[in-house]
Amino acid sequence: MIDLLKKLCLQDGISGDEGTVREFILSEIDGCCEWKIDPLGNIICFKKGKNATDKKVLMDAHMDEVGLVITAVTPDGFLKFTALGMDTAVLTARRVLIEGSVYGVIGGKPIHLTRGEASKKLPPADSLYIDIGAKNRDEALDLVSPGDRAVLTSDWAQAGDKIRCKALDDRVGCAALISLLKQESEYDFYAVFSTQEEVGCRGARVAAFAVDPDFALVLEGTTAADIADVPTEKQVCHLGKGPAVSFMDRSTVYDRDLYEAALASGVLCQPKAAVTGGNNSAAIHLSKEGVRTLAISVPCRYIHSATSVADVNDIEKMPLLAKQMLCDICGGKIQ
Amino acid sequence: MKDLLFSLSAAACTGYIHDAAVLAEAELKKYATVTRTGNTVIGQMGDGDYTLLLDAHIDEIALTVTDVDEQGFLTVANCGGFDPRTLPARPVNVHTKSGVIPAVFCSTPPHLSSGEINYDSVSALKIDSLLGEDAKNVIALGDLITYDMRPVALAGNRVSGKSFDNRAGVTCLLELARRISGKDLPFKIVFVFSDQEELGCRGAKTATYAVNPDEAIVLDVSFGDGPDIGAYECGKLSCGGMIGCSPVLDREISDKLIDLAHEHNIPYQTEAMGRSTGTNSDVISVVGNGVRTGLISIPLRNMHTDTEVVDLDDMTAVVDLLEQYILSGGVSRD
User: Which single residue of A38, A160, B166, B273 has CA 20 to 30 Å from A50?
Assistant: First the structure.
């Protein structure tokens, strides 16, 4: 599964440009389930289980990642951009890859030439630019166009049980869904690889409408703040203690029965101990008459940067917990 | 030169010995008589009573571990000037006795970083070693940490990566050695790849004492242009090497370099400074009885980050100019 995750993370696909990721996922799941692609680019899959069930369960993972959109080219050949879902505090002096082929760097005035108070503050995000090495506007326009998409690149690295890479949010969810589709399932379920999560959960909204589920499990990556200098009570969740399950975040009050069943499932997991962030649950739980929803999230440090960090054990537990929840729901444990 | 620059840029450290020094030693040995002491590589070509020293520092900015906590977070001190504002979520490598460990600078999630982040010093930030409780067994105090970024090609002949300051200079001198190899040299040439420049030009001081040259030219990098930098406080990429003009540099050397650039149609630009230059030339010029010293800098963008950018054409221009300088006899016959 970790090898699969590596391949997924190294695909580039920011919101609205998930094609490469989608093709890769299709190559993995084809033959394991029924699937179709909807008008927004979601992959909607149906997995036939061993047992019939009258409960319709949707499992979601989003394919898109945070990134940049090129907005203009200056006369000097530098690119202006807008950041999509990114923490703008981690944009200075980064390498980017535009449309999978053109490298650039987000440049800036060296600290040696920055004096006084300015040297203690981040440059404002709208003053940043990308340098692709072009000497002028024409040279730049030979290689890129406004509207092109870029990601902050990063190599895959692993130390002990920890992984360091871009796009862990939410390729960890995609990897979990793929592994569930590849194995035999106890019960029928729908799997959605959704688009446009980072720009407002737009893919999941229409996919949930189409599937019309009774229950939803949203497989995600979430902020872990278990790092130095963050007080214990603010650490949200911890790497290595299993996937986090949420009772509430900024956009969803989760189904309490599902939340409690997850904690009692016997699969190592932890409560997400903060009301922060949001995910596709926001769109899914309000679909049609409403959907009983649970988010299962792999704790990720430095999420929304090009170097997020997650723990192999948490990643491997996520499909186990989702599978157990499916059995609890369809087996009648959850009323 | 690109392949050599990329190899030098990506080289790791073993203990305090940079693999780059070992690599440069092997490369220079093809053309010169070479010794390496620690990270300092000295190679001699040609003979004579008059000695020209050519210096490029081979060290890169780094950090050193000052604390490893129970959860595997590291506190560090800087060996060279970092911009703390660029460091959160930055990938780095910890060079331990048992190998290279990938790590990353901690970055407080936006929802918890209400208020300003303290960018006063590198030591106020923490590094996540990824090793958790095991970190204490693997990482030792004093282990070095460098950026983790492989070099890539940009448009044209421009390239980006870490530690081009000053592996770009080292690459040029290695190319120069290759070019003048087998040629009739007017005097003794000693190549010095010096250590600890980023800590205050220390390596060049002792190496120069050992070589005892009559004349020296330092090759380093200087600030390249960008939209947020005043045109008068930087050089321009793709316009050739920056010939230093400063009270601490030998004026005849500067003038000779400029004349030769004109004569041979080699692109160049001047970098005029009112005081010292912030390079090894400040130190080399006052070793022993004093050494007449010149300076050429390769324009480089985003200095001291892992996204430095140089133009290989500028590096070629610098090698062309140094070759002409040597073949012309420098200022030895003045």
Answer: A38
What residue of A is the nearest CA neighbor of B103?
A164
Say whether B62-147 and B2-60+162-327 share the same fold. no
Q: Does A225 sit within 8 Å of B109, measured CB to CB?
A: yes
How far is it, in rounded angstroms, from Cα B260 to Cα B136?
57
Does A106 sit within 8 Å of B89, measured CB to CB? Answer: no
A95 CB neighbours in chain B (<8 A) are: 149, 152, 160, 306-307
Nearest partner of B207 among B221, B185, B191, judged by Cα: B191
The per-residue pLDDT for range A149-204, each reduced to its tens digit, is: 999 998 999 999 999 999 999 999 999 999 999 999 999 999 999 999 999 999 99
Domain check: are A45 and A118 in the same one? no
A160 domain residue, yes or no = no
Helix (H) or strand (E) holding B246: none
pTM to 2 decimal places: 0.91
| Domain spans of chain B, in order of start | 2-60+162-327, 62-147
Cβ contact (<8 Å) for A159 and B229?
A: no
Enter the CATH code of domain B62-147: 2.40.30.40
Q: How far is A166 from chain B (nearest CA, A)?
A: 11
Chain centroid, CA B211 distance in Å: 20
Determine the Cα angle at A291 with ends A286 and A295, to 5°.
90
pLDDT digit string (tens) for B19-33? Answer: 999 999 999 999 999
Domain boundary among A108, A130, A152: A152
Take residue A212 and report the two structure tokens written for it: 């019309």
Distance from CA of A71 to the nearest CA of B (A): 16
Closest to B51 measured CA to CA, from B42, B59, B60: B42
A162 to B132: CB separation less than 8 angstroms, yes or no: yes
**What is the spatial distance between Cα B330 and Cα B253, in angstroms, rounded to a whole number?**
7
Fold that domain B2-60+162-327 belongs to in CATH: Aminopeptidase (3.40.630)
ipTM for the predicted complex = 0.88
Domain extent for A148? 67-152
Is A118 part of the contact surface with chain B (CB cutoff 8 Å)?
no
